[in-house]
């Protein structure tokens, strides 16, 4: 995790936090209609410019977990009913669900339900994406060829464990979506490539050992 810091934007009914360490500038916040987020304005985010419900809805669009909120009514962000990994075209892995990411501190609340994990191997903020795939010209269109063993239920905790100098292991009820949005794989344990070299993306095939991938 980089040494950049999080910024808090207080409101009367709800507070918003932006964690620069996780932001990959997808723009779901800035493109949202209304005055909650306005680029070039100081402050950039004004929680009082929208209802609490709208603030929650817009913040939860953030795929990286860089945005989070504290609703003063006590209403927390709830985990989605399904744990999902979406393989992004030429980009990271988007995770949503009841996430238990190894090593994540309590000061990163957005990562409890949303995260963008590096799969090009070049991020300087591993295991999270920092857009290094753009400079590295990482190319993988997000097709998924395997179906997995299937699921008997959905939801529940999803443990995310980045293995030292290796893949990321996911344990829990899990659905993997191809970049097209298609439900491609379902199961309870997956080993996903994060070195960028696997010939069976998004799954690990041991190529991290061949390319001497380093997770630190």
Give the radius of gyration.
17 Å
Low-confidence blocks of residues = none
Strand content: 25-35%
Shape: globular
Distance between the termini: 10 Å
DSSP, total strands: 10
Give the structural class: mainly beta
Mean pLDDT, all residues: 95
Largest sheet: 7 strands, mixed
Q: What is the total number of structural domains?
A: 2
Helicity level, as a percent range? under 10%
Can you offer a commentary on this structure?
- This protein is 8% helix and 26% strand.
- By secondary structure, the chain is mainly beta.
- The protein has 2 domains: 6-71, Alpha-Beta Plaits, CATH 3.30.70; 84-210, no CATH class.
- The strands form 2 sheets. Strands 4, 5, 6, 7, 8, 9 and 10 form a 7-stranded mixed beta sheet that branches. A 3-stranded antiparallel beta sheet has the order 1-2-3, covered by helices on one side.
- The protein is globular, with a radius of gyration of 17 Å.
What attributes does this structure have?
2 domains, 3 helices, three-stranded antiparallel sheet, Alpha-Beta Plaits, 216 residues, Iron-binding zinc finger CDGSH type domain-containing protein, 2 iron, 2 sulfur cluster binding, metal ion binding
């Amino acid at each position: 995790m980089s040494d950049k810091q999080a910024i808090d934007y207080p409101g009367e009914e709800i507070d918003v936090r932006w964690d620069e360490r996780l932001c990959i500038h997808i723009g779901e916040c800035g493109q949202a209609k209304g005055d909650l987020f306005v680029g070039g304005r100081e402050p950039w985010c004004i929680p009082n410019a929208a209802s609490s419900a709208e603030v929650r809805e817009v913040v939860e669009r953030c795929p990286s977990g860089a945005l989070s909120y504290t609703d003063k009514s006590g209403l927390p962000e709830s985990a989605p009913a399904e744990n999902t990994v979406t393989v992004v075209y030429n980009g990271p892995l988007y995770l949503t669900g009841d996430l238990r990411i190894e090593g994540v501190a309590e000061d990163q609340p957005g990562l409890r339900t949303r995260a963008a994990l590096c799969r090009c191997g070049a991020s300087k903020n591993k295991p999270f994406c920092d857009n290094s795939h753009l400079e590295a010209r990482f190319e993988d269109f997000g097709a998924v060829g395997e179906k997995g063993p299937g699921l008997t239920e959905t939801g529940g905790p999803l443990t995310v464990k980045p293995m030292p100098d290796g893949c990321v292991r996911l344990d829990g009820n899990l659905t993997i979506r191809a970049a097209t949005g298609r439900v491609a794989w379902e199961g309870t344990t997956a080993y996903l490539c994060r070195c960028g070299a696997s010939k069976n993306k998004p799954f690990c095939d041991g190529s991290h050992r061949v390319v001497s991938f380093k997770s630190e």
